[in-house]
């Protein structure tokens, strides 16, 4: 299978499993990746997903060898993105676990994720620059938003490689970890996030995502609307009662989301 879906308790692990082509995606595997993300979205027992690649690389983008024979990713203005989920807005966070190359469309997949945990081997870059392949999975939109216009333009125009430590300094990577540990550390982070009250976390996350398309007044109103949804859920009252009972003192975050495995 080109895309694997595994769940360990509240964490879904989605793996691009095409290591012989550094996890580059053709049309069929891009569609399978989109389906895996939809499965995560529908999985009520999964609070956070980790997206990774098999064989030491995250994703090298589109499989260029599939384009001449007509089996490459579909590129149209409507429907899923060429590499699958890049036009989706999930209600739950996704963390990229990056070993090796996250380049071209693979960079765009990493940008689509909420957070990026990169190993010391990670390399980010618009490597498609040299082949005349455009960024059509959100790269020209999300990269400037994440790291600023000047740094984004440097990457977009030159196609140069950005290694892990520079990516961390840019804000492109959120964590840098030893080689081979990206997935484990991403899953650890995912479990920490899954342990928080989820209605509040999801509503705050959506407000942060939605504000990009809104003016300040509308964005503030939307933040309040989503906050009211959390308040009406009872989650805030429960949290206040736990606080009054002594929970969370001195910055402690004690929670056990449980563990339940599922693989396919």
From TrEMBL:
**Region (Disordered) residue spans:** 244-264
Q: Which GO terms describe its molecular function?
A: catalytic activity
Q: Which domain of life is it from?
A: Bacteria
Q: Which InterPro entries match?
A: ClpP/crotonase-like_dom_sf, Enoyl-CoA_hyd/isom_CS, Enoyl-CoA_hydra/iso
The similarity comment for this entry is:
Belongs to the enoyl-CoA hydratase/isomerase family.
Q: What is this protein called?
A: Crotonase/enoyl-CoA hydratase family protein
């Amino acid at each position: 299978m080109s895309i694997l879906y595994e769940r360990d308790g509240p964490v879904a692990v989605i793996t691009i499993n095409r290591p012989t082509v550094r996890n580059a995606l053709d049309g069929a595997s891009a569609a399978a990746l989109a389906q895996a993300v939809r499965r995560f979205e529908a999985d009520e027992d999964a609070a956070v997903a980790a997206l990774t690649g098999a064989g030491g690389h995250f994703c090298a983008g589109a499989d260029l060898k599939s384009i001449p024979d007509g089996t490459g990713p579909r590129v149209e203005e409507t429907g899923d993105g060429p590499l699958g989920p890049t036009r989706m807005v999930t209600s739950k966070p996704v963390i990229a676990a990056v070993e090796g190359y996250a380049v071209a469309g693979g960079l765009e997949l990493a940008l689509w994720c909420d957070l990026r945990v990169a190993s010391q081997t990670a390399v980010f870059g618009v490597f498609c620059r040299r082949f005349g392949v455009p960024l059509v999975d959100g790269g020209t939109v999300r990269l400037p938003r994440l790291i600023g216009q000047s740094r984004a333009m440097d990457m977009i125009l030159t196609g140069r490689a950005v290694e892990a430590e520079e990516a961390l300094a840019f804000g492109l990577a959120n964590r840098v970890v030893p080689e081979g540990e990206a997935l484990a550390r991403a899953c650890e982070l995912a479990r920490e996030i899954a342990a928080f009250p989820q209605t509040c976390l999801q509503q705050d996350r959506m407000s942060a995502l939605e504000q990009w398309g809104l003016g300040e007044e509308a964005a503030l109103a939307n933040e309040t609307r989503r906050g009211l949804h959390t308040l009406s859920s009872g989650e805030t009252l429960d949290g206040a009662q736990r606080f009054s009972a002594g929970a969370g003192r001195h910055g402690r975050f004690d929670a056990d989301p449980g563990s339940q495995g599922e693989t396919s």
